[in-house]
Amino acid sequence: MALTDTFVRNVKHTGAPASDKYADGQGMYLLVKTTHLYWRMNYRFLGKPI
């Protein structure tokens, strides 16, 4: 599922002790913490996550 502009602008932290992660399905995900939003990317090399 691709993350839309509207979703990213309106997403809020749910209050869970851990951060919330919303993936776009291609390795990139949005990490939502209590204070900020962070874009992160999962990398793989030879099929193994780095």
Structure description:
By secondary structure, the chain is mainly beta. The protein has one domain (5-43). The chain is 12% helix and 36% strand. It has 1 helix and 5 strands, in the order H-E-E-E-E-E. The strands form 2 sheets. Strands 1-2-3 form a 3-stranded antiparallel β-sheet, with no helix packed on it. The protein has a two-stranded antiparallel sheet with strand order 4-5. The chain is globular.
Q: How are the SSEs placed, and which strands pair?
A:
Elements (H helix, E strand, L loop, with lengths): L4 H6 L9 E4 L4 E5 L4 E5 L2 E2 L2 E2 L1
Antiparallel strand pairs: 1-2, 2-3, 4-5
Mean pLDDT: 91
**What proportion of the residues is helical, as a percent range?**
10-25%
Number of helices: 1
- Element order: H for helix, E for strand: HEEEEE
Domains, number: 1
Radius of gyration: 12 Å
How widely separated are the two ends? 23 Å
Report the biggest beta sheet as strand number plus sense, adding barrel if it closes: 3 strands, antiparallel
Sequence stretches where pLDDT stays below 50 over 5 or more residues: none
Class from secondary-structure proportions = mainly beta
Broad shape: globular
Count the strands? Answer: 5
- Beta fraction of the residues? 35-45%
**Order of strands across the main sheet:** 1-2-3
